[in-house]
Amino acid sequence: MNRKIIHVDLDAFFASVEQRDNPKLKGKPVIVGGQTDRGVVSTCSYEARRFGVHSAMPIFMAKKRCPHGVFVPVRHKRYREVSREVFKIFYGITNIVEPLSIDEAYLDVTNIEEDSVKIAYFIKEQVIRRTGLTISVGISYNKFLAKLASDWNKPDGIKIIKEEMIPDILKPLSIKKVYGIGKKSAEKLNNIGIYTVEDLLKLPKEYLVEFLGKYGNEIYYRIRGIDNRRVTPSRERKSVGREMTLKEDSKSREYLKKHLIEFSKDISRYLIKKGVLAKTVTVKIKASNFEIHTKSRTLHDHIDGHEQIYGIASEILDEIDVDSGIRLIGLTVSNLSDNYAEQLSFFDNLQD
Ligand code: TTP
Ligand code: MG
Question: Span of the secretion signal (predicted)?
C-alpha cells in the first residue's frame, strides 16, 4: 500500500516569531542574527529575502544589501518554546513524527483514514491559530518527495506530489534539489554536463555508483520516485562532538584552543538547529604515546552558545597536561535536554 508522508517546515521561523511577538515588525524586512558586524544572519523574513539576504550571510553584507532592514538579536529560548507548541500539534495527529530540526518534521499519516490534503490543511490552520505562524506542507508517498513538496510553494505553501506525476514533475529540477546530492557532487555532475534531473535520469545505475560512490544507488532510485526510508519517531542523540588528529603533535595550548573554538562553533550550530541544550562538556586528548585522556564537567544549567561551550572547554584544557605533545583533540557535549521527548510522553495517551 502507498504510504502517506507529510513534511512540514515553518516559514522564516526565527524571523516570523519576531514579527508575531512585535507586530510593528510585520511586513518589514526583519533580519535575525548576531548583533555585531562580525556576526552572521540566522534567518530573515521573506521581505528581506527580496534584497538577496539569506541565512549564514555575514551581517555586514546583509546591511549593505538591505540598509533599511530591521536587525534583531537571536532569542533561542523563545524559539524553542514556540517550536514545542508547534510540535504538540503534530503529535496531536500522530505519534510517528520524526523531528529534523527546530522547525521541521516528517509525519507518517498512512494509518489515518482522513485524506492527506485535509490533514495538511488542518495542520496549517492549527499552527496559525495557535502560534500565529505560517507553515509549508508537502505531501507525498515517500520522504524525499514530501520534503521536496514542502519547499515547492514556500511560504505558506501546500503541495502534493502523486505517483503519476513522476518523473515528469522532477525533470526540470536542478540536481541540487535531490536529497543526497551535496555541493561537491553537484559540481562534479555539472562538470560532465549534468544540470537537471532530466539529465541525471539518462545515467545508468552502475555509472552513478561509480561516479558518486555508495549514495549513487539511492539517488538512482530516488529520482525515479523510489525512497523506502521510514519515518522514525524521535531519534534521540546522546551527545554531539567533533575531534581532529593534528597534522603534527602539538604542545601549544593556544593552538589546541583554536581547535576548541572551531569545534564549539560547530557544536553550538548543531544544538541550536536541533533546538536542544547540553549540560556536560568533555575534552578528549590523545597524547603522542597514543594514550587517551578525557575530562568532563557537568554544569548546573543547560547551554547551547559557542562562547559558553568554549569557556568550559578551555578551562578543562588548562587542567590537562600537554607537555608531552598532543596528537588528537576532541570536544563533546552530552546530557542533552530532549525538546521532543517531553511532547512524546505528553501525547502518548492520546494516540491509538
Ligand atoms: P530553515 O527552515 O532552514 O529556514 P527558515 O525557517 O528561516 O526559512 P524557510 O524554511 O521559510 O526557508 O531553518 C529554521 C531556523 O533555523 C531558521 O529560522 C533559523 C535557524 N537557522 C540558523 O540559525 N542558521 C542557518 O544557517 C539556518 C539555515 C537556519
Ligand atoms: Mg523553515
Answer: none
